[in-house]
Amino acid sequence: MPEPEKPEKPEKEKAAATAEPQQPAAPPVAAKPPMPPLEEEASLPFFGEPLVGFDPSEISGSLIVIEGMDGSGRSTQISLLQEWLESEGFSVQTSGLRRSNLVGRDIDQLLAKNAVTRLTLALMYSTDFFDQIEHRIVPALKSGAVVLADRYVFTLIARGVVRGINRDYLSGLYAMALRPHLTFWLNVRPETAFGREFKKAQAISYWEAGRDMSLSHDLYWSFIRYQTMIKREFEAQAKKYNFIELDGEASVPTVNKLLRQRIAEHLGIRGTKYAPSSALAHLWR
Amino acid sequence: METQEAQKQQRSEPAKSTLPQPGRPVPSRAYPGALIVVEGTDGSGKSTQLYLLKRWLEIGGYRLHFTEWNSSPLVKAATRRGKQRRLLTPTTFSLLHAADFADRCERQIMPLLQGDYLVLADRYVYTAFARDGARGCPEKWLRNLYRFAPIPDITFYFRAPLDVAVQRILSGRPKLKYYEAGMDLGLSYDRAESFRLFQARILEGYDNMVESDNFVVLDGTLPVNKLQKQMRDIVASRIDLKRFAPHAAEAE
Which fold has domain A56-277? Predict the structure, then answer.
C-alpha cells in the first residue's frame, strides 16, 4: 500500500506538566518510529498523534500502568494500591484488558472459540483498548482521578510482536494511546509465574501458554517458552518507554512498598504507611 | 476439478511465506489470484455493477469469491451493538471495521488469492480511508492500520455527483441510520442534511485517492448496461481471465 508522505501535524503541548522528575534521555531509535521513546518528561500526552476529538489540556489526573506477564502479581498489587490511594483520599479508576463495554465480551467469545486469526484478535484488543481509553480512562483523568491500568499497550504490542506482527505496525496502531505518567514492570521468571498461575485455576489456559503458536505440545514448556518471549519483548520495551522495573519475585508487601513510594512521590503524598484492611488481608503475604 | 488440482500440484509451497505480513509492503504478484475492488459513495451504483460482473463471471464458470465490507461473522455482533448503543467513536468505529477486514483478509481473501481465485470485493480499504478520514482519523494512522491489505489488481471508482448519489439513497430508504448519516459528527441535526454533508466529505476523500491509488474512474450516472460493458471490457483487458476458467489447462 503506498504511503503518501504528509507533513506531520504539530503535536499539542500538554499544558499541565506533571510532578514527574526528569527522566534520562532514551537512546535514539532508527527510522522515526510512529511511537517515539520518551525523551523529555511526560509533557506530551500521546505516543504519536492525538486521539480524534480529544483536548489534552483537560487532563488533571494521573495514569499509572502496571505491566508484567501472567502471574507477575499485577492484579494483587492493583487491588492493594486502590485501597491505599482511596484511604489517602484519591479517586481511583481501574482498567484492564477485555473490560470494555463495546467488545470485552466479544473477545472472550473469540478466545473461547479459537477460530480467530492473530491480526483480527490484535485489532479486537485494540478496539477494546481504545474504547476504555475514550469511555473510562479519559473521563476519569479529566475528573482528576488516578487511573490504575492492569496492563497497557505494552502487553498488546508484545503479544503481537511474538506472533510475527511487525513492531512498527503495532506502534502505529497505538500511536493515539495516552502516555502513562508512570509505568511499572513487575518482572518475574516464567517458572515462578507458572507456579502462581497454576495455583489460581489448577490448570494453565490455552492462551497463557501461547498454544496458538505451536511452541510445544508439553503445556509446561509451551508456557515457559511463550512467556520467555513476552519477557524478552518487555525487556526491549523497558528502556524505550522508561519502565520502572520491580522484582516481581519479592513478597507482596515488599513490591507494594516500592510501588507506594514511587507513586507517593509522583502524587505528592507524604507518608506511605499502609496495611491492608481485613477484606484484602489475604493478599498480604 | 481435476485440472485445477493438476495445476496446483505444479505450484510448490514457497519457502518463505508470500502472505503479506502486517506492516510490510505486499510484494506485488506474490500470489497467483487476482483482486478486483469496487469503491464509491453510497448510491454510486457500485454494488449493482459488481453484482453484474459477478454474474457474468459465475455464468462463465470462473473460480471466484465475493466479499463484502463489514460482513465478518466474528465481528458483526460487536459492530451492531456498538451502533445500536451509539458507543462508537471515530477511533473505535475505525478499529472495528479494521478487525472485520482483517478477519476476512486472513481467512478468505489471502488464502483464495494464494489458491488462484478471482476475488471480488464490494468496498475495500479505501472505504475506510475515505469514511474514517471524514470522521477525523489521521490519514497516516489509517494507512498504517491497513497496510497488511493486498493491493488490488483493479480498483473501480464509481463516481456520481453528490446530488445524484444522495437522491438515490434518500428516495430508496425509509430512514437513514445514525452512523450511516454521519450523525456522530454533529454536522447537522437533520439526518438528510447530515448525510449530505458527510457524503460530500467522503466524495472528496475518494477524489483525493484517484491518482495515488490508481483508481479506474467510471461515470456512475451512465445507464447500468453501458457501465457494465465498460467494466467487463476493462476486466477482460487487464486480467488474464483464462487462468480462472474451469478448463484452463485444456484451453491452452
Answer: Rossmann fold (3.40.50)
